[in-house]
Design brief:
This protein has 309 residues and is of the alpha/beta class. The protein has a single domain, classed as 3-Layer(aba) Sandwich (Rossmann fold). Helices cover 32% and strands 19% of the residues. A hairpin with a 6-residue loop joins strand 1 and strand 2. 46% of the residues are buried.
Length: 309
């Protein structure tokens, strides 16, 4: 396992993300166009128990573009200030997202193959899941997961049209989703992941998703195309909305160089960076204090669109 504190803050802030490979922008704009064109029918399977009388929780199911069944939760408060599209990572939720963003309608589509989206085709074991569809960028599980996010956003807006006024996208895959979808008004990227080729230089825990992806990519030049196209550092260059990003100085799961490659690639005009001491792991006292600052920042930033509308 890599030493998670082998880079200074100053060194991490100097890391440059990968330049997008030829065809990168065209590839992702085509994926987005396909997701928006998809005539998706969805089923509200039922309303679930909610710990809050002011929030209703729904379980929803839809089939994605390639026929993969996707399950999602949608939490709707009595008074909603907008929508949050949550793109979770391998720490996927096991309960509906009631407290994810108070006052906001929250959609959490489970990543294909995991949680509510478990299916016959895709492994649910994390290391096997991380390399599913490695034969091409279009078939890779992360690409499909990003398309699913855009479809989930369409469903949230269809069910609750008022959310379209003020959409935030956050979570593990959000950097891949934000640049191409003009329905998204703000980004909230906590512990960014999929940092591109720099991650090939930094082993992590054997059997982890990141290490499985790293080893698979190193097997052949063809496999490197997956890293190049599913590259959040390259995608971050195309972000054009205010985006909070919180990379960590120390992390045993997602190497900090990859996190900072993404954070540093967000254009300065749109980048609102706060730096954590610890990524995946118990929060430090400084990180706990920063969470209070972030909550206040989100409250000011993410509601401003409606006030100014």
């Amino acid at each position: 396992m890599m030493e998670t504190t082998s880079f200074s803050k100053e060194e991490l802030l100097q890391i440059k993300g990968d330049t997008p490979v030829a065809g990168f922008e065209e590839f992702w704009r085509a994926q987005y166009a396909a997701a928006r064109a998809w005539k998706c029918s969805y089923t509200v399977e039922g309303e679930l128990w909610s710990p809050s009388p002011d929030c209703r929780i729904y379980r929803i199911r839809f089939n994605s573009i390639d026929g993969i069944p996707i399950g999602m939760w949608l939490a709707r408060p009595r008074e909603s200030t907008g929508g949050l599209l949550s793109a979770h990572g391998y720490g996927h939720p096991t309960i509906p997202p009631v407290a994810a963003s108070p006052g906001r309608t929250v959609a959490v589509p489970c990543v294909r193959g995991l949680g509510l989206s478990q299916c016959k085709e895709i492994p649910w074991q994390k290391d096997a899941h991380a390399v599913y569809g490695f034969d091409s960028p279009e078939h890779y599980v992360i690409t499909g997961g990003v398309r699913d996010l855009w479809i989930a956003l369409t469903i949230m807006i269809d069910m609750f049209p008022d959310t379209a006024e003020n959409i935030v996208c956050g979570g593990g895959m959000s950097t891949m989703s934000i640049p191409w979808d003009d329905r998204i008004h703000y980004g909230d990227v906590n512990i960014p992941t999929l940092g591109g080729r720099i991650l090939l230089e930094h082993p992590v825990a054997p059997g982890s998703p990141g290490e499985a992806r790293r080893l698979k990519a190193l097997e052949s030049p063809e496999n490197l195309r997956i890293i190049d196209f599913c590259n959040a550092a390259a995608a971050a260059r195309f972000i054009r909305v205010p985006t909070i990003v919180t990379p960590a100085l120390s992390d045993k799961v997602v190497p900090p160089p990859g996190q900072f490659a993404i954070a540093n690639s967000i254009p300065e005009k749109y980048r609102i960076m706060r730096i954590r001491e610890v990524g995946h792991g118990p929060a430090s006292e400084a990180d706990k204090a920063m969470e209070k600052e972030l909550a206040e920042l989100r409250a000011r930033l993410f509601v401003s669109r409606r006030k100014n509308a």
